[in-house]
Amino acid sequence: MQVIGFNLTKIHGEKFPSFSKAGINNNVEFTNVEKDKVEMLKDLEAIKLSFKYNLLYGNVEKPEETKEKDKQGEIYFEGNVILSATDEEAKDFHKSWKKKEIPKSSVAPLYNFILRRCSVKAINLQEDLTLPSPYLKVPIVQAKE
Questions:
Q1: In terms of DSSP bridges, do strands 73-85 and 2-15 run parallel, antiparallel, or are they unpaired?
Q2: Residue 29 near residue 51 (C-beta atoms within 8 A)
Q3: This model's pTM is above 0.90
Q4: E strand segments, 16-142
Q5: Contacts of 21 (CB under 8 A, 6+ apart)
Q6: Could you tell me the end-to-end alpha-carbon distance of the chain, in angstroms, rounded to an integer?
Q7: Mean pLDDT score of the chain, rounded to an integer?
Q8: How far is it, in rounded angstroms, from Cα 58 to Cα 123?
Q9: pLDDT above 60 (res 70)
Q10: 59/66 Cα distance (integer angstroms)
Q11: Backbone angles phi, psi at 91, to 5 degrees
């Protein structure tokens, strides 16, 4: 299975007036799997995987309990990943999705791919909104004279 396409369909960033020092929680959620048509694929099938990626600023100890009024900021993406798959891989993917799951062998690579692509855009939004970044901060080293 190989990623052959990626696109974002929704980008949202918001910093609430009540923002103070807040914890950060990120989440990737797969929302839909369907067959797609890609003319260039001859012997392979195309799978369109829809996702949501959310960076939530607020109560990170229990993010599922964070209510709308407790949010201090949010960066949110929706999009699609297009995968090429053999007939067998596609059947396995669709069979797993009937249980609202992704095949275990594909979860980590897909999470990593989505995180890599969305993190770059999230950093720009964080800077524009002056929100803290959950990503690794590289210290600036000054040369000694």
A1: antiparallel
A2: yes
A3: no
A4: 23-36, 45-58, 73-85
A5: none
A6: 53
A7: 82
A8: 18
A9: yes
A10: 6
A11: -60, -45
